[in-house]
Each structure stands twice: as structure tokens, then as C-alpha cells.
Write a structure and sequence with these properties.
Number of helices: 22
Shape: elongated
CATH architecture of the largest domain: Up-down Bundle
CATH superfamily of the largest domain: ABC transporter type 1, transmembrane domain
CATH topology of the largest domain: ABC transporter transmembrane region fold
Distance between the termini: 72 Å
Number of domains: 2
Largest sheet: 6 strands, mixed
Structural class: alpha/beta
Length: 571
């Protein structure tokens, strides 16, 4: 928890007041058995009715004060722990948003989700439990022992002799359980990932009759989580029964020894009654302390996982600005090479340039590096070597806000949010209705009017839209901001040929100054591009216009003839 101390520091005053109220409540609670002992041993035998009522009233006031103080302090602990957790969760979410794509690949999305949810919950529970029991339990333990020593040292030594046994058990449990809870959270990441994949691909799973396979896959990872949880549970379950056994044995000895000492006249019966009350307080305090250590094990493991993300260094830093080149291409790749894993190159020595308003088409088989070019252009990753430039300026020197505003993007696996059509096209940007309408018309999204206009509802993930309708809505979103550079990553695969042709014409006529980077599997979508790159295993095996590639690149010619027919190509 020391790694998250900066979040706790602003609330030290509030937490101190909470602990002070808990302290006063614990001291008040310790007074009740002492007052009862005086009443039973001195006032009752003397028949002093007024004193009996007085001491009874004092005991009642102590009980009410303890109750009220505990309720108030518990509410205050809930407020402070909630606010601290809120700040941690906010900063964790913000840090996750600023992680580079490479860092997110290493962290994984399921792990990010579990750190943002279950880990922050464990931290919240630890903070609340520490404030509720962190002062009260030790004070009851130490104060109860001190009061017992003051009443009768012989009986108190029975309890004090048992405490080291419990302390050893608590130490063992804490030492063993922290690694287990860390492992538990790691396995929980795998469970989240499995469930996420299943829900995302539920239609495909059902279509291919893989429901039983998915059940087995979930059963395996769920079984692994259960095993780790059981191991942690078995270890932590030792504390309460052991503490109860040891303290109850001590309680039995206190009763036996106390009875003997009462008969011998060494102590009075009121002391035994008070001892039993203090013993019960000490028993509950010890159980509370063991629960704190169990919660500490979970909270420490979760705090370390959260702190690891918060301490992740900035990966893609903005370099000092340099003077841009005069009359430079709008987009230029200079000898760019890149690898996701460091084993084999996903892009190797790629060079090309585009003037403003030109269109780049990228064609190639799966895994050839098409989407990698887009990732490098957007600076989701930095190249291992070479330079990516926009208007002659290295994109590593362009501030992120400025760089991102240049792009309109439709990714291969993009998403729609729950809301209206207008909400999805606008996507939290300040765009007027005319910009939305213009973008929708260019994207050939005529279905919007049929569904009720811009206020038509879009359900989660756009499940009330067809594949082609989703793609057109996503293209409208990309166009609505009037971008300098439009990136379309296989975004017309669900469109029929006629709609695809209309879309290309609309882009040429309405967005002449927009430079377009188009990834597609259809030659018909690329044939009018100013430059077409044919990729294979990260290397360019063909570059030029459609007519040039038909003459110089056999792979492109085979694809074109297969898709469009040799006769149509000749035309």
C-alpha cells in the first residue's frame, strides 16, 4: 500500500478523525466491564440502590456512546475509502488510456479490466477494514489485557501466554497468502479473457457448434481459479479456528482458575464476570485482527498490480520539434522497418510518399503488414528503424492531440456505442448537424432516413444494424471531422459493388484535399488509387498504379483477373 500512499495523503486528517472516534469508542467500551465489576463487588453487596442505578446508567451511556461512535466512524471510513478508491480508479483508467499499443499488448485487455474492477475493489475493502478495525481491535486487545492485569495478574497471564501462539499463526498466514492472492488475480485475468472472447464471438461459436468446446475451455480456466482460490482459502481459514480454539481454551482456564481463587478469597466474583467480558472483547479483537491480515494479503497483492500500471513509464514520448521540409509529401515512409515481437519483421524497409489529396491502396494476404502500416502512421507504435513523416515533419515530434486531429479512421474491427445515430457519428466531438448530414451522405448511409433519421436508436455494438450499415455509419464517423488523412482499413468489405463505387466517387468529389489510405481485398476498391502497394510477408512486391501493376506484378494480375475477370480487366 505504500506505493499508493499519495492517494491516501490528502485524507490523512479525515482518517485521523475517524481513528480518533474509533479510539474513543474502544476506550468507552473497555469501561463497561470495569463499571460492572465495581457495581457487583461493591455497590450490590452494600445495597446502595442509588449507586447501582448510577453505575447502570453509566454503563448504558458508555454502550450508546460506543454504538454511536462506531456508526459514525464506519460511515466516515466508507467515505474516505470510497474517495481514495475513486481517485485510484480514475488515474488507473487514465493511465490505461495513455498506454501505448505495445504496452497494452503486454498487459492484455482482460488484465486491465480486472485491475480496474476487482483489484480496486480489494483496495477499497482493505482501506475500509483498516479504519474500522485497525485501531479498535488493537485497543481492545491491549486495553483489555491491561485492565485484566490491573484486576488480577494471575488470570491475565493465562491469556498473555496464549497470544504468541496466535501471533505466529497470523504471521504464517500472511506470509503464505500474499503470493497466493497475487496468483489468484493473475488467473482471474485469464477467466475474464475467456469470458470476453466467448461473449464477443458468441454468434460464431453457435454457428460452428463449438458451445461444448467453449464450456470445456471455461471449465479448465475456472477450475484453475478454483484451485488457487481454495489454496488461499485453506491457508487463511487456519486463522479464525486456531484463534478461537486457543482463546477458548484460555477462557476455560480462566473460569477454572478464577473459581478456585474466588473460593480461596483471593478475588471476588465480579472480577470473574468482568474477566469474561474482557476475554470476549479480546477474542473478537483477535479475530478482527486476523481478518485484517487476510484482507491485507488481498489488498497488498491488488495494490501492487495497480501500482505497476500507474508506474508504467511513458513509451511513445513526443520528441523536440524540428523544422519541416519545404514542399514535402503529405505522407512519407522512409525505410521503415517494424516487428511486434522482435522475431521476424512485420514491415521491412518500406518507402513510399503521397501528395495531399492522393489515395494509397494497400493489398496483400492476411499477415502481410497492411494494418501495421496504418498503426505506424497513427503512431500507435513507433518503427524500429526508419521515419514516418507528415508534411515533412517526423510524426514523433507532433503532439498527440495535434496528430490525432489529422485523421479520420475506420478500423477493421471497429465498434459502435449505444445511443443515437447522431451520437455515433459525432462521437463526443463538437460537430453541427450539417457536418453529420454531409458525412452520412458521402458514406452512402441512406438507411439512416429509413430508420428514423439522426435520432434513430443504435443498440449496444450496433446489433440492430446489418454489416453494411455498420460500415457506412463508421465511415460517416470518420468523415464527419473533415480529416486531412482518411484511413479505411478493409471498411467496405460488407458493401455491395454499387455502393462501394458510389462511396469512392463521393470521396473523390467531396473530399479532394483529403489524403486517403485504403486497405482492401477487392481490386475494384483499389484500382483508381494513385499508388497501390502489394505486400507479402512485410515486403513490397509491387508498387504503382493499377495499369502498371497489371503489367509488372504477376501476383496483382492474378488477383485482379480472378476477382474481375480478364475480359473486364481488358475493358
Amino acid at each position: 500500500m505504500t506505493r499508493l500512499e499519495r492517494y491516501i495523503h490528502p485524507y490523512w486528517g479525515f482518517i485521523f478523525l475517524t481513528l480518533l472516534i474509533k479510539l474513543l469508542g474502544a476506550v468507552t467500551e473497555l469501561m463497561i466491564p470495569w463499571l460492572m465489576e465495581i457495581m457487583l463487588d461493591e455497590k450490590v453487596p452494600a445495597g446502595d440502590t442509588a449507586a447501582i442505578y448510577l453505575y447502570g446508567g453509566l454503563m448504558l451511556l458508555c454502550a450508546l456512546g460506543c454504538l454511536g461512535g462506531n456508526i459514525l466512524a464506519n460511515r466516515m471510513s466508507a467515505i474516505s475509502s470510497g474517495r481514495i478508491t475513486k481517485a485510484i480508479r480514475h488515474d488507473l483508467f487514465e493511465r490505461l488510456q495513455h498506454l501505448s499499443a505495445r504496452q497494452m499488448d503486454e498487459l492484455t485487455v482482460p488484465s486491465a479490466e480486472s485491475r480496474l474492477t476487482s483489484d480496486t475493489y480489494n483496495i477499497n475493502q482493505l482501506l475500509a477494514r483498516l479504519q474500522r478495525m485497525g485501531v479498535r481491535a488493537p485497543i481492545l486487545l491491549v486495553g483489555g489485557g491491561a485492565m485484566m492485569l490491573a484486576m488480577d495478574a494471575t488470570l491475565a497471564l493465562v491469556l498473555l501466554a496464549l497470544l504468541p501462539i496466535i501471533a505466529l499463526v497470523v504471521y504464517f498466514v500472511t506470509k503464505t497468502s500474499i503470493p497466493l492472492y497475487t496468483r489468484q488475480q493473475t488467473v482471474l485475468d485469464k477467466v475474464v479473457r475467456t469470458v470476453q472472447e466467448n461473449i464477443t464471438g458468441i454468434r460464431l461459436i453457435k454457428a460452428l457448434s463449438k458451445t461444448d468446446y467453449e464450456k470445456q475451455r471455461f471449465h479448465a480456466v475456472n477450475g484453475e481459479l478454483t484451485q488457487v482460490d481454495m489454496k488461499a482459502g485453506i491457508v487463511t481459514a487456519i486463522t479464525n479456528p486456531t484463534a478461537s480454539l486457543v482463546l477458548n481454551l484460555g477462557l476455560t482456564l480462566v473460569v477454572l482458575i478464577g473459581a478456585y481463587r474466588v473460593n480461596s478469597g483471593a478475588i471476588r466474583s465480579g472480577v470473574i464476570v468482568a474477566f469474561l467480558q474482557y476475554f470476549t472483547m479480546i477474542l473478537n479483537a483477535m479475530l478482527g485482527i486476523t481478518r485484517i491480515f487476510v484482507m491485507w494479503s488481498k489488498g497488498e497483492a491488488s495494490a501492487n498490480r495497480v501500482a505497476d500500471v500507474l508506474a508504467t513509464p511513458e513509451d511513445l514520448t513526443v520528441l523536440p520539434a524540428e523544422a519541416s521540409e519545404d514542399k514535402a509529401p503529405h505522407i512519407e515512409f522512409r525505410d521503415v522497418s517494424f516487428s511486434y515481437t522482435g522475431i521476424g519483421k512485420n514491415i521491412d524497409c518500406l518507402s513510399f510518399s503521397l501528395k495531399r489529396g492522393q489515395t494509397l491502396g494497400i493489398l496483400g494476404p492476411t499477415g502481410s503488414g497492411k494494418s501495421t502500416i496504418l498503426n505506424l502512421l497513427l503512431r500507435l507504435y513507433d518503427p524500429d528503424s526508419g521515419t514516418v513523416l507528415i508534411d515533412g515533419q517526423d510524426i514523433r515530434t507532433i503532439p498527440y492531440e495535434e496528430l490525432r486531429k489529422k485523421f479520420g479512421v475506420v478500423f477493421q474491427n471497429d465498434f459502435l456505442t449505444e445511443g443515437t445515430v447522431a451520437d455515433n457519428i459525432r462521437f463526443f466531438r463538437e460537430l453541427d448537424a450539417d457536418a453529420l448530414t454531409r458525412a452520412a451522405e458521402a458514406a452512402q448511409a441512406s438507411f439512416i432516413a429509413e430508420k428514423g433519421g439522426m435520432d434513430a436508436e443504435v443498440v449496444v455494438r450496433g446489433n440492430n444494424l446489418s454489416g453494411g450499415q455498420k460500415q457506412r455509419l463508421l465511415i460517416a464517423r470518420a468523415l464527419a471531422g473533415d480529416p486531412e488523412i482518411l484511413i479505411l482499413d478493409d471498411s467496405s468489405s460488407a458493401l455491395d459493388y454499387q455502393t462501394d463505387a458510389k462511396l469512392r466517387r463521393a470521396l473523390r468529389s467531396g473530399y479532394r484535399d483529403t489524403t486517403t489510405v485504403l486497405v482492401a481485398q477487392r481490386v475494384s476498391s483499389l484500382r483508381h488509387a494513385d499508388l497501390i502497394l502489394v505486400l507479402q510477408d512485410g515486403c513490397v512486391i509491387g508498387a504503382g498504379s493499377h495499369d502498371d501493376l497489371m503489367e509488372t506484378c504477376e501476383e496483382y494480375r492474378i488477383i485482379a483477373q480472378t476477382q474481375m475477370g480478364a475480359e473486364k480487366e481488358g475493358a
